[in-house]
Amino acid sequence: MSLSTLALDLLVRKRCWLLVALAALLSCGCHTVWALPQGAPETVCDTMLPFHAGGSVLPENSVSPFSIETSSSVVGQGQTLRIDVTGVPAGLSFGGFMIQARNRNPPYQIVGQFSPSRDGTVKLMNCENSVNNSATHSNAGPKPQVSIDWQSPVDFLGQVVFNATVAQSYNQFWVGIPSNPVQVVRRDVSSAAPLPTSSSPNNYNNNNNFNYASTRSPYVPPSFVAPNAVAASEDSFYDGCGQSKNCFGFPNGCVATKSCTSVSAVTVRGDIYEFELRSGKGTNAAYVALGLSDDGKMGEDLTTECVPENGRINLYSSYTSANPYSAVRVNVPQNSARLLNASLVDGVIYCKVQREPLTVVQGRSFDLRNGAYHMLVASGSGLKENSVGYHDIGRLPSGSPINLAVVQDVGGSSQLLVRLHGAFMIAAWIGTTSLGIIFARYFKQTWVGSQTCGKDQWFAWHRMLMVTTWTLTVVAYILIWVELKRAVWHAHSITGLITVILCFIQPIGALFRPGPNDKKRPYFNWGHWLGGNLAHILAIVAIFFSVKLPKAELPEWMDWILVGFVVFHVLVHLIFSISGIASDRQQSQRINTFQMGDMSHHQQHAMRNGMSMERKMDAPYAALRKGLLGVYSVVLILFVVVLILLVALAPIEKLFE
């Protein structure tokens, strides 16, 4: 071999190695989207779920930057519709995808057929023994948009939703991106109405191949952004409760009547733990959540939150704190749970979540296999930044901790202490306090000369009633502390606390009451009057606030009963006051009938004796006061009984279902 030939051969080999090295460098250094070159396999027709890194890479649960758009919202039987898979904003590339059209109603079967694309970017799939009813990518290269033609079936009428899996990268992919619903109608009545652009949220992942799992549960298309999508119906949600899954919601006992304001369900199959959550219709819930708690109280609980945001349901895991109350998402592993299905229909939130059997949060382990936990369902109408708001719609823990794998009838915790607290407060502040104030204010000149235990009748009754108020109030306050075990601050608790303080110091102040002729007596009288009336008013206000408390489960129309009591109470005070003015005027006329200056000493002495005798007699209109007191007492008892029944039997609406 000549020297020139050898040099040429080395140069060619060097160039080849340079080209190989350059290709390797480009393949490693460029940010591309790699997907399974031949597209998704037909073994994943049911799941549409990529199987990246052996399943350790989970789908995104954030808003997707990709949307599924249709050329029309109505299509006739056997007619063709164009489907576009695009990025938002326009130009955002993706590598892998899979798309199907499914019946919007159960059993969610795949319908219709896709046509081959002109540019060769689409590979057709045969799912459920049907030809070309699904489509995937034919190459893994980046693409800003894919357009596919879909032909509707000739034997189907109803709504379909296109659902897609889109992979932006190996580590970032979204499953179940929905289109807006498309109505399939008879061909002779079809009218191709344009469909507004969808801005549904869902995502994909980055590394090597876009693989799919074939070992997951069948895919049920979610309806994240479909404006009229159908959430899990009440009947289907409650199917299997107590037989194949644990169900729990509030108000207590609502699962049996299928009437929960918020409800949860847990299904366990081996190491697969699936949680379902649903808010009630008409509650305007901003979130629905389920906590796993050791003690049934808020604090140090692992919580699953389903929150509507930007037109879809987002899933969050949080860890609750009791002091102050909060649900914190920071430092809580968000990949310990993934969203399987969700919908937001007419304000009703529904989500289905799969959670890992073991989750460690801030050094604490939540072991679903071996642990027993209280189920704690909550929902509220407000959100905070990066957190849910107060559970003003409702909250209820299960009565005892359970192993989630053991199917049973789950009941709520006892509300006995809450009911007793409410009943005692109503009896004290609407019953005994109201009557005690009437005695002290209007009956000092009635039953004159009659005594009980050495005290005038008005004072004996006033003291007995107010001691009863004090006792009931203190016991009720202790009961609610035993129930809550911590301070909870809101309008009801603040006004109630001030009331309890005023109530507590009233009898203590009475022990140091100055004598009748002491110059400090007027100050005591005014202070005692002000403290008692202020406590009474604040107590009534606190009872009004209690109607809004989710834990009380009181009907909103209870407000009108309370308004009726206030009106009646004020009206009776007005009548008593008018009769008191008339009585004072009549007594004054009796005294002024005689002019003391024109009387002899004997006449003045006789007059003083007459006035002394008059003070031992009831003031004028005593019969009216006694009759009005009887009417007031009967009506007051009726108010108290009705209100206590509403508290004790809450939620009262269940009795009439």
UniProtKB/TrEMBL annotation:
Transmembrane segments: 423-443, 464-482, 488-512, 524-545, 557-582, 629-652
Cytochrome b561 domain boundaries: 384-582
DOMON domain residues: 257-380
Keywords recorded for this protein, A-Z: Electron transport, Glycoprotein, Iron, Membrane, Signal, Transmembrane, Transmembrane helix, Transport
Residues spanning the signal sequence: 1-35
Organism for this UniProt entry: Drosophila navojoa (Fruit fly)
Coiled coil: none
Family per similarity comment: Belongs to the FRRS1 family.
Name of the protein in question: Ferric-chelate reductase 1 homolog
Primary location group: membrane
